Amino acid sequence: MIFDLISKQIIYYSIDLNSFLTITSFLDFAHIHNFGISFGFFSGIVSPWTLILVGIIVTGFIFYMLIKSTNHMEKWGLTVIIAGALSNIADRALNGYVTDFIYFHYQDFYWPAFNFADIYISVGICVIVLHLLRDLNKRIK
User: Fold this and answer.
1) What is the SS3 assignment for 29?
2) Is residue 23 part of a domain?
3) How are strands ordered across the β-sheet holding 98-106?
4) Is 100 a catalytic residue?
5) How far is CA 127 from CA 11, 45, 55, 58, 115, in A?
6) What pLDDT score does 76 carry?
7) Is 135 annotated in the active site?
């Protein structure tokens, strides 16, 4: 969580808003303010405080799942998801938006910008899905 918040501060002070710094032919660092949720959905439609409240409720439910879980891998995945969610919630609470800055592209195809907290959430989900698939595979055999 700390790494995500620090990286957003570095971007904030290093790159002008809506500007890009080319790293490779397929990766830029950008300074983008995301006022919505994933991929900017609901930007300008829902207030930041509504998104914060929904984020806290969802994170609370995930925390409840963490407490009830008896599986080590599931707990690890849920913990990483919570860390990412709390980091984005903190960013939105402090600024009214989430700073996104990792920007992948290939020729004319651009993936929406994201941040390390988004990576934490994605990795946590992948860990849980892989665990569930492994469990399902064991039950089938």
Assistant:
1) strand
2) no
3) 20-22, 27-34, 98-106, 109-110
4) yes
5) 28, 32, 21, 19, 19
6) 97
7) no
Q: Which one is catalytic: 4, 28, 91, 100?
A: 100
Active-site residue, from 4, 28, 91, 118? 118
In a domain, 38, yes or no: no
User: Which tokens hold the place of 119?
Assistant: 């990576």
**Cα 128 to Cα 4, 132, 134, distances in angstroms:** 22, 6, 10
**Domain with 122 in it:** 2-6+46-140
How do residues 40-60 score in pLDDT, each as one tens digit?
A: 888 888 999 999 999 999 999
The answer as to whether 32 is a domain residue is no
- Residue 68 domain-assigned (yes or no): yes
pTM of the predicted protein model: 0.90
- Structural domains counted in the chain: 1
